[in-house]
Amino acid sequence: MADIDDIFAHVPRRTASKWSKNGPGDLEDLAKATAAAKEEAEDRLFAAKTSKALMDKKIREFKISHSLVALFFLWVAYTQLVGIYLFTRGFLLTRKVLEEKSECKVSPLGVGAYLGELETGCWHPKTFDKAVIVIIDALRYDFTVPQVDANGAPSTEHYHNNFKTAYEIAVKTPENAFLTPFIADPPTTTLQRLKGLMTGTLPTFMDAGSNFAGTAIDEDNLIDQLNRAGKKTAFMGDDTWTALFPGYFDIEHPYESLNVWDLHTVDEGVLTHMFPLLHPDNSSSWDFMIGHFLGVDHAGHRYGPDHPAMAAKQKQMDIFVQDLIKAVGDDTLVVIMGDHGMDPKGDHGGESQLELEAALWMYSKKGIFGRVPGFEVPPKNAEERSVAQIDLVPTLALLLGLPIPYNNLGGPIPEAFIGPNGDKWDNLANVARLTSSQIEHYQKSYAGAQNDDSSTETRTTKLWREAEEKLKVDPVQMTQDAWRATYETFLTHQKETLHVCKDLWARFDLTSMLLGIITLVSSVISILVFGRGVSGDLKELTGWLAGRCFAGTAAGGLAGYTFHFSGMSEQGELKLALFGSAAGGLLAFFASTAAIYRRLQHIFPTSIFSIMALLFTVLQGVMFAANSFTIWEDRILTFFLTSFSAVAFCYSFRQEDPAMRTLGASQSIIFMVLTRIASFSRLCREEQMPYCESTYYASATSSVSSPFSLILLYFIALAFPPIVKSYYTGTKSYEGPAQLYIGFALQFGLLFNALYWTLDSADNGEWIDIPTASLKRAKHTIAQVVLALAFVAGNVFFAWAQPCLNIDIQIDKAPSTAEDEKTTGKPSPATTAATTSRSMTILGYANLHGSRSFLLPISWYLGLALLQKPLGGASMAALLWQILALLEIIDSNGLSDSPIGPVILAMLGSSYFFSTGHQATLSSIQWESVFIPTDTIRQPWSGLLFAGNEWGPQILATIAVPTLALWKQPAKEAGLMGKVVRVCATYVAYHATIATCTVLWAAHLRRHLMLYRVFSPRFMLGALVLLISDVVMVLVGVMSVRWNFLSVGEVFGLVN
Amino acid sequence: MVDRSGIAETVRHAHPIILLGTLYATFTSLVNDPPTLLLQLLPVTIGIQIIHASTCLGSSRVAAASGGKKKAKSTSKGKSEDAGANVLTSFLSLCLALLIGTPAMFIVIVLLGAPITADLSHTALCAAHLSVLAGLPLVYSYHVQGSKWRDIVSLNLPMDEVYGGALGACLGAWFGAIPIPLDWDRDWQRWPVTIVVGMYAGYAVGRLGGLALVGKVARFN
């Protein structure tokens, strides 16, 4: 009986009974077995008391040192955040906003120019009293003109030849209407476009992120001018308008705009509120009406262009146009336009031609429109002829007799001023002169505000003077040809100014960028030195370092803030304080490493796996210098990952133990094949065409999942839990909480996942005849249950769960021997042979830490998989399987100290980013994932859901990082926590290197043609992935280790 | 296991140059029509490899079967009956390399990212070339001794010219994949031209590398 006592020597009694709860009812056995021991109860009590005090002390020590580890990673995250912030502030361009407004009584032509009253038109006689502006979101130009297929027959795509009325009228009665491509300035997000359409100026990249929270415009704009002129404005539709112009509209009917699943609410709202106002009885209640339809855009987001829903939406819009022109009066101008186009699968945000090409149709019963000679019929495409979106602003202002908004850079649209015969060049030249003069005016104040007199200003001013010179001749004697020449000079002036402004606002703050780069590069070096360059146990060192780094950060921050007052730098105090804090912390770190120089080792790799880890990271970092490598990043990652598994396969053959050899080789093959299979799930970016075929959605012009992927989800629900289980049964760890997580939560959660996406597809495809409302409710409830199971129950239970252990007591006929134990090999449970015929086995001892710690990735997988589209959910299953295979490869080949584990894990996360239908482009963002468990946007939850969809694979990989160091490691090995720290540091170092490389290349290639298409989005992705993996690492990864160690320590005692 | 006789020395030095020269001479047609040229080039490479193997390389089977005394003989002056036996052995090695090596390499290349539905003949020929370049000399030298092949697969074999060449060919093919995605729109970026070039160049460099690092074993961890 002494043996059993030995086992329990440092185990509190309550734990012993805990195990038995899961055991085969052997509490009585256990009691009998320990009956003899109970006789020594008093001795035991004393021993237990001392051991308990010892234990408490150890727990306290562990908690403190663990908190310091978390603090250290927090410091790393902080430094990286500062680096990225400083770089971003200098890199993502900002434009200075001037607050001056144009005045009706102050013509830009100076004193003596035509000055009318509001009633007749301010700077120029007005043409219309009223205007109806209708925005059909994402109305691409090719939707509006007849399209033919390759054989010359009318195109049968769902998105062609439905919206016909506009084209027909423009052809039949050209004096009543014209239709033209309407080119957006990127970024093509609705908020940015509305700003451009109302102010006439260029949005800068910085604003692109604010799509979720529209902010009021404080620049001069059309709506403000209408208000100042006392005109009554009415608005209905997309609520982005009310966010941009709060309190400006006399009548407003805003509708929630971000719910892309809803194709009809906004449109129905616009239709219900618009037509009553158009009735002659109500004509006095408005002067300027805006309607903003979202149906076409949402159909594009939800289904992609090639779907019957798109055709239905376009037909509905066509009928609306017919009704509208019947309802308006003679003095009303009608403008129908798209604010941007859509890419082949119905999304937008980037700057591809299809996203930029919207349509513009202007109509009036007055018959004042003309054509520029040579363009009598609507152009076939934008290459023939197009109009810039900012041109709408001066055109509308002059047609309605308003002053041109102060910041406007657009020019008047010729069709609206040239007259029905196409010969009123004098009128056109006059409006062009007004516009150019206002632009010159604006340029002067902008230059004044910037204290900037560079030579480019004078170049445009010279053009303007030239044009003005041409007008010095007596206007009466001027021929139409002379007017035309004058107009063209003004046009050149406008184009040149626009060019200069684009250039001007592409000016980078190099100091800020440099500070960011210095911070990031030093941070990468520091984390590399920490993770790979220090020998011995990292745990104690981390605490020691954390204290010093934080002290350095505080001191540096203060120093930076004080430096601001010395006036030696133009950077703001926030930037200086932030840079000071980062620099201070890093200096403290490097000074501290100098103090422990004895423990430093060189980082240069000498073994195949460490060379591979470095080579893969460096090659990937270098490849971001080339746009083609960046574009093909998905394939390159697949190539690296399969290469790793091929080498791991080879290395497995070095193992002497046949069981280990088989395990390593077979898991390498699984890893390799899964990598290749997962690479088939992808969504090609535009630049990959035509060498790439998207498989993520049912077709290339759709964003609906194929039914095949639904079947795959059901298959996964059935087949995947047993696969995960098999990784537990090998070490007999499928006990206790593992049964709950894998056998129950995973099993049912995956079924619910499949059910959710089935209902979703049923909703999309209208398969079954159930009211949409109840279908939605059912769908949302299922999603909420899964998310609660994964993120709430999964995490809370993880904090309280016991290790995956059980005790098996057997009565042996023959006493077991030492040889028996040996033959069972490493995966076998630790066995204690009783001296008599009784033996007790602790099941799951061989993977004590790993089996418990991996429960967290399992439950997070469940939630993150739900947030992906069906094929993405399947990809996530492959990811989890690959992580398990990687754990086995690392363990069976004894690679837990090598950097290859964390590097490959990080690359897995990056690779599956692409396998879940994402790309490093703005248009591939799956905004609709926010609406999986609910109908409304509620921060911060919507943001979290979005992050879970966008970076789900990276998040899952990050959570699995600590398990890399724990999988199948001896439970009582010293320095295990230090190993975890090392693995986590290496993982962070990988992401930091990648992010820093994208930063370096984006900075270096800041004048590259592909900056906004390739390098800038990749930089943003790299930076965000780094920050997210930092945060997840500190909050989830490192914290999970705490619970894991405490829970294991409760049973077996803590080992430091 | 390297024969040091006069003819053998000449063949040994000329061998990589002839291989690279052949590839260089046919490069234009390789770029224009990879599968046809690869198919035509395959017998040439096989011939060069067989000549090289039977004149320069020692066969472990001969060595093992005939004991120490004969081994000394076989590695001394090349006798005519030895040459005949060597050619036979090298033909057997060729069969093994092509039958087992080509499908294995094909699978690996596809797993590494080669197109799975298109250009299958390109990939298959590429795999055949790799197995003739890297596999044939290895099979000739080590036959099917399980322990040796375990060492070969796990990079545990002490480095020599044969092994160096084989590893070089594999690594060269790997690095050959790197220029493919670049948007230079060159014809030579066509699948699998760069892989084949990398393979041949890697083989030549690997032979030299094997000599430089002779006897060394790679460390994994």
Draw up the topology in text.
The complex is a heterodimer of chains A (1056) and B (221).
Chain A: H1 2-8, H2 13-22, H3 27-33, H4 35-38, H5 41-91, E1 130-136, H6 141-144, H7 165-172, E2 177-183, H8 190-199, H9 222-228, E3 233-238, H10 240-244, E4 251-255, H11 265-278, E5 288-293, H12 295-303, H13 308-327, E6 332-337, H14 353-356, E7 357-363, E8 387-388, H15 392-399, H16 425-450, H17 455-470, H18 480-504, H19 510-532, H20 538-565, H21 573-595, H22 608-623, H23 627-631, H24 633-652, H25 658-678, H26 707-729, H27 737-765, H28 772-800, E9 806-811, H29 818-823, E10 831-833, E11 838-843, H30 848-853, H31 855-866, H32 870-892, H33 900-915, H34 941-950, H35 952-966, H36 976-1004, H37 1011-1052
Parallel strand pairs in A: 1-5, 1-6, 2-8, 3-4, 3-5
Antiparallel strand pairs in A: 2-7, 6-7, 9-11, 10-11
Chain B: H1 6-25, H2 27-32, H3 34-56, H4 60-74, H5 80-111, H6 120-142, H7 146-153, H8 161-176, H9 193-212
Helix pairs in contact in B: 1-3, 1-9, 3-5, 3-6, 5-6, 6-8, 6-9, 8-9
Description:
The complex is a heterodimer of chains A (1056) and B (221). Chain A is built from 37 helices and eleven strands. With 1056 residues, chain A is mainly α. Chain A folds into four domains: 2-39, no CATH class; 130-423, Alkaline Phosphatase, subunit A; 425-506; 605-806 and 844-1052, no CATH class. In chain A, the strands form two sheets. An eight-stranded mixed beta sheet of chain A has the order 4-3-5-1-6-7-2-8, with helices on both faces. A three-stranded antiparallel beta sheet of chain A has the order 9-11-10. In chain A, helix 20 (538-565) packs antiparallel against helix 21 (573-595). The longest helix of chain A is centred in the N-terminal third of the chain and has 51 residues, at 41-91. The radius of gyration of chain A is 34 Å and the shape is elongated. Residues 1-27, 207-214 and 815-835 of chain A have low confidence and may be disordered. Chain B is globular and about 50 Å long. Chain B has one domain (6-212). Chain B has helices at residues 6-25, 27-32, 34-56, 60-74, 80-111, 120-142, 146-153, 161-176, 193-212. The model of chain B is unreliable at 60-81 (pLDDT under 50). Chain B is built from nine helices and no strands. At the A-B interface, helix 22, helix 23, helix 24 and helix 25 of A face helix 5 of B. Chain B: InterPro entries: GPI_biosynthesis_protein_Pig-F. Chain B: This is Glycosylphosphatidylinositol anchor biosynthesis protein 11. Chain B: Keywords: Endoplasmic reticulum, GPI-anchor biosynthesis, Membrane, Transmembrane, Transmembrane helix. Chain B: The chain crosses the membrane at residues 12-31, 37-64, 85-114, 120-142, 162-182, 194-214. Chain B: Pfam families: PIG-F.
